[in-house]
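Figure 3 (text version): structure tokens given as input.
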């Protein structure tokens, strides 16, 4: 069985390679931009009511045939490695601004050019961070 995922935009980040990116988003104060393609821009209406978002992205530089981490001596699902059968990334980010089709955020660990596959709002009462 196969599924099709359509990117809704991409990430503009200071991190140009996997080695430059932090292991988790809350470990960085760097600002990133999420650029939403024009055909999905209408989906941003109302998003400015939230301070935090869940960003789902496709780790396009990941290896997809890894099931075990020799370094950590455990299965890949017991790690945060980007190398996995379905390299879906997940980050909780703080919204700095939303202008037209660009969302400026902090706490995103994705590299420059990473495809964004979904955005979900996160109410502050759901969040116990920092």
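Below: residues designed for each position.
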């Amino acid at each position: 069985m196969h599924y099709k995922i359509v990117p809704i935009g991409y990430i503009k980040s200071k991190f140009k390679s996997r080695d430059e990116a932090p292991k988790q988003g809350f470990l960085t104060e760097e600002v990133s931009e999420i650029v939403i393609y024009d055909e999905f821009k209408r989906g941003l209406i109302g998003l400015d009511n939230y301070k935090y978002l869940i960003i789902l992205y496709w780790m396009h530089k990941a290896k997809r045939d890894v099931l075990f981490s020799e370094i950590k001596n455990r299965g890949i699902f017991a790690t945060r490695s980007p190398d996995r059968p379905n390299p879906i990334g997940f980050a909780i980010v703080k919204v700095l601004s939303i202008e037209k089709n660009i969302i400026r955020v902090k706490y995103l660990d994705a590299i420059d050019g990473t495809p964004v596959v979904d955005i979900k709002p996160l109410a502050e009462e759901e969040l116990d961070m920092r």
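The chain has a mean pLDDT of 86.
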